[in-house]
Predict the structure of Nucleoside diphosphatase.
Amino acid sequence: MGKWRYGVVLDAGSSGTRVHVYRWLRNVAARKDADPLELKSLPEIKTKDKWVKKIHPGVSSFADRPEAVGSEHLADLLEHAKSIIPKEDAKDTPIFLLATAGMRLLGNLERQLLLDQICSYARANTDFLLPDCGVHIQVIPGVTEGLYGWIATNYLMGTFDSPDKHNHGKGHSTYGFLDMGGASAQIAFAPNATETEKHANDLTLMRLRNIDGSVQEHRVFVTSWLEFGVHEARRRYVEALQTATGADIRELPDPCLPSGLRTTLNGKDVSSINDAGTTLLGTGRFDECLRQTFPLLDKDAPCMDNPCLLHGIHVPAIDFDVNHFIGISEYWHTTHEIFEMGYKDKAYDFNTYQERVNTFCSQDWSSIEAGIQAHKWGKKVDSQKAYEVCFKASWIINMLHDGIGIPRVGLEDTLGSSHNGTKELLSHGQEKGYLDAFQAVNKIDSTEVSWTLGKIVLYASSQVPTEAEEAMPVGFGSNVAGVPADFQYPSVELLPDSEGFHSEHWHDALFDGDSPRRIPGLLLFLFIIVLACFFLCGRSRRLRMYHNINKLLRRGPSHPNHPKKRKGLGSMLPFLNRGGQMYERVLEDGAHDFELGVTDSDGSDVDAGRPSETDANPRPPKRTSSWGSSSNPPGLKYTLDNSSSGTIGLGISGDSGINMDRAGLVVRTESRDHLAPIALGPTTNGRRSRAGSPTRSHHQKSPSMTPLADD
């Protein structure tokens, strides 16, 4: 186990699945050389571009054949992750597959079948840490996705570790987060102090833990609009076109397509389709496109809890004096992939951006195709991206300015703000410290902004051990004191009813020199190794070791006429002696008439310490004890011989020179088996007869004896 911890997150979106691999220092290593400021920081998460891989389409496309989602979809992504993470760290590496809007649109049964297949495949084909499918493999709601994105954005911006460097005024230091995918759109931000107090019940409490174990809390508003992603918005737009023009029209004019482009209703090129049905014909009128996409915001929906932004969903008032938003995903791709190529200015402002969109979308489709062939907009832009971008641009503009209300920088001032964004339009957003009301980004400090990073930040933070007994857990939930009923923990081992003890916490408790609960970890480790070797060395070696140590600890000779008491190591550590009964083991090895713990032919257990049922018809011995061989220990001169009439019933010769009290022997043996004393009756050939054991019929094992079968 190295100094790094790893984490794997699969973002299962509507258009594809992307695997992200992250790593961070184990807490012991992170604390070792950290200065006081670093100790008050969150764990440092690292990733690389080559650690990310995306495939198409999304997992939701396997709804009608869930059994194929593993071999045809997940296999390449999991192999990619396995190629990055060292094998010795795999079992300590959590894996999460978190599905978003595409899976939210499926039915409950279809969704659950897919999740079950995903979990089964991941468990069967990787060694990654996957203790609970319900926590690690799930469809997350849009608000959770938005919260993870907010964490990732502010983590990369450094506002959690250095809030003083991001003072936006009014004691506010965090950035708002905007995300738009194919099916949904999210917003997350911390309102100003006035709105926070007014809408406290609408906020989410989010708690993180620094390297030194101290905590930090944030209160965030987050919401999601399902069907407000670019693909779902486009579907609703086409349906509105059909409704407005009538069902019998075979060709619908579409102002959001470049002039001269003809496609099917779902955006496919009709040139290779014999019967495309109703088609769309581009007119290239971007101003009309903006007008026709505006109703999709549903601004007139009833608002049950004022204020609302769009679709009747409540959002606290946004103070653009202090709330500066960073947009990712489609906000970045739509504003930069085409409309920034060939331009020096990369910063977003409404006026410049709309002029560029107008210029592009008013071209004939033939001119755009020629530009694609010449890589005028870069190698990543193909025909599909080119004819989709005009609708996407109009939808982004409407969402940002008419929906969320972000000021149109270049046309409108940020009212009440001392920051004049207009004078800084020629500067890049990062150089300005992202102080515009909106800035689209793809990376911050060379790290891609993805909500998956927020998930790992939360998880890594939760793995930091805390010294305080009453420490509050890491996670998020309702904005109430303590731990709310709906509190969500980053992983299953942190749940209050979890019996697991996480490996890093165990490691820190033993070996972290800064922990007051530290125990002599090295000594305990050596003890465990010695104990393991003892039990692995074999039964015969253990017995020899026991005898050798016992000889060293034994004091003085035993009286020859009394049973030997267990002294030395056996009396101190009885568990080292198998069953703790050396005396009975001697009888087992040498006395065939008085077997200890044998097993009936029918598989039932015979009472240990009782004479055999066949005592009346003794058999010749099939084996003799090694103690009766030529290798007998010095001083041991008696032999075991059941054929002599001079025996006393246990095969010990009367001429052995040792006078043993038979009654005492029998009473001792039977008392160890918790038997009632039995008076010595008549003997036959030196043996006593007895009735059958009452406990034998119950097939019970003696509580103080270990049957042979168990050896």
User: Anything to note?
Assistant: Residues 383-404 form the longest helix (22 residues). Residues 581-710 form one domain. The longest strand covers residues 215-226. The radius of gyration is 39 Å.
